[in-house]
Amino acid sequence: MTETASRPTLEAVAARAGVSRATVSRVVNGSEGVREPLVERVRRAVEELGYVPNQAARSLVTRRHDAVAVVIAEPETRVFADPFFALQLRGISKELTAHDSQLVLLLTEGREDYARVGRYLAGGHVDGALVFSLHLDDPLPGLIRGAGVPTVFGGRPGWQDGTRSAEPATPTVYVDSDNRGGARDAVRHLVGLGRVRVAHIAGPLDQTSAVDRLDGFRDVMVDADPRLIAEGDFTPAGGERAMRELLDRCPDLDAVFAANDLAASGALRVLRERGRRVPEDVAVIGFDDMLPVAEQTDPPLTTVRQDIEEMGRLMARLLLRGLERRGREDAVEDIAGAPPSSVVLPTTLVRRASA
Amino acid sequence: MTETASRPTLEAVAARAGVSRATVSRVVNGSEGVREPLVERVRRAVEELGYVPNQAARSLVTRRHDAVAVVIAEPETRVFADPFFALQLRGISKELTAHDSQLVLLLTEGREDYARVGRYLAGGHVDGALVFSLHLDDPLPGLIRGAGVPTVFGGRPGWQDGTRSAEPATPTVYVDSDNRGGARDAVRHLVGLGRVRVAHIAGPLDQTSAVDRLDGFRDVMVDADPRLIAEGDFTPAGGERAMRELLDRCPDLDAVFAANDLAASGALRVLRERGRRVPEDVAVIGFDDMLPVAEQTDPPLTTVRQDIEEMGRLMARLLLRGLERRGREDAVEDIAGAPPSSVVLPTTLVRRASA
């Protein structure tokens, strides 16, 4: 173990300064009511001893930790395998760093660890939380509610549209992309190319982003043959499996809209394996514009671009603004301005060779 | 903001139970000396109100958070780009989860954020820290010392061999691979193949792992032409740059030992670009046996295997064992057993097609 047995204590500072423990505590926590000569003596003792105030104690007073937790509702293996999360974290990290707030990423092996995450969030270690990749029936929102930490979600949470009935005064705040609109654009583009048997590789349908993209697909393909829809899981392997199913069921399909680029990359591999030319025989569109994936597929992928890094940055910005507002509310009640509200970012179709 | 205005307080519990605040506090913190009927009343009130004790307050008493910080001395972009870190985190995550301890990954944009990391570590939010990828003159060890948290390092820290002179009683504990021995095996293998102009693409020489691998190279190539050594940075792009330098300086080289697989993958690309056949013209060996990288290079990579996930697991295990020991020392002084000490894991040469 690497540690100092000799980390200076509050008592040592009090002894050095010749004042009481309570006086040191008041000075360290910035309280009023200590005479200037005493303040000076305490400050000198703090400096001489290299005393670091115990922030667990101090944060009981100030209630600020300058730290924000990030919770991704996926096992850590998935967090590191899918570049989507790295991009979102990049935006979050930049924004938190600009405000000198520490990014605290809480990793788990799976759902059975969420109670522990809830305890950490309730433990007074962070000012707020950024939570993303929630699934239907996810225990996390309930645990976060119990922990009582201000939270901004990445992606519209599944429980309902916008607010939780129990607490109308504290609406759920989230940042999302226009998943449904983006999906519509993709499928309209395929139809515009003259494709008539358009298939969809959906994401996991316990996530709102996957449901919204499927809804966008159905908005355009109103009477879609249900055999033209297969559920994937946002991974390349899931895209391969779904593409095989679709080809087996509907060998005459002439287009595929995949719910994300990783699934599309798997679909492209299977199409090549089965001797289908892209885009001549089957046109393919993904979602995300995840680089370098979308540029390095063969052929390069036409896809729906969402600004993932910007989503992360916005989540952090909304949370910090909310925390600041709370601080101001404590001080002067009526200058706090409007509370942060949810943001849905637009998407754009990026044309490459696959459709 | 998503939060509960109505999180029940200690005061509310005291009022409901008809006891003092101090009594509630003693019961919640498991202190002795409260009469059983009162304990029962407090417990019932806690349950009825759904009171969650403030762990910041409680941890002042128990000094346990069931959480361990992981600090990687690299910007977050690098953490997510290099699969080495994901593997080490996988081992750490598995081990911590098995002990119901929360993995708290503290991400940064760079060195200028380390003071903030130090504040978080000092803030009483974690029981200990796992720190890896330290660089020479890294401010982190000093900040960690100041924070006073038990720490295990991944990779031998650079400041000296094993102990810090100021605190002989608390030796530095680290987990490392036999970098020098592994490098010797690789270079001996190249020499055994009859190669005489063996080059080395080093890692960043402000890290002990890179220095040790270079030393291993020199152990075998005692009179190596200094032009046969180029410094990389453990990335594919760095490997490409170094390989170009080496070919420009020594077009007659017939083998390359790269300090890691990612650098070797870059070197292979440049060799192909310059029309050198591997292994016929130039034999190539990497370090790590990072999968799938080492298997997917063209040709597949001969490399020195180190068990990265196991290193992570061991780091976590040593830290938890040390924390447990400290707990027991507080109770009974002489049953604590030997303190954890550093571990250096063996490496093995894995032969594929490149050498």
Report on the structure:
2 copies of one chain form a homodimer. Chain A is of the alpha/beta class and 355 residues long. Chain A folds into 3 domains: 10-62, lambda repressor-like DNA-binding domains (434 Repressor (Amino-terminal Domain)); 67-177 and 310-345, 3-Layer(aba) Sandwich (Rossmann fold), CATH 3.40.50; 179-305, Response regulator (Rossmann fold), CATH 3.40.50.2300. The first copy, chain A, contains 14 helices and 12 strands. The first copy, chain A, has helices at 10-17, 21-28, 36-49, 55-62, 76-81, 83-98, 114-122, 140-147, 179-192, 208-220, 236-249, 261-273, 293-296, 308-331, and strands at residues 67-72, 102-107, 128-132, 151-154, 173-177, 198-202, 229-231, 255-258, 283-288, 302-305, 343-345, 348-350. In chain A, the strands form 2 sheets. The first copy, chain A, has a 6-stranded parallel beta sheet with strand order 2-1-3-4-5-11, with helices on one face. In chain A, helix 11 packs across helix 12. The radius of gyration of chain A is 26 Å and the shape is elongated. Chains A and B meet through helix 4, helix 5, helix 6, strand 2 and helix 7 of A and helix 4, helix 5, helix 6, strand 2 and helix 7 of B.
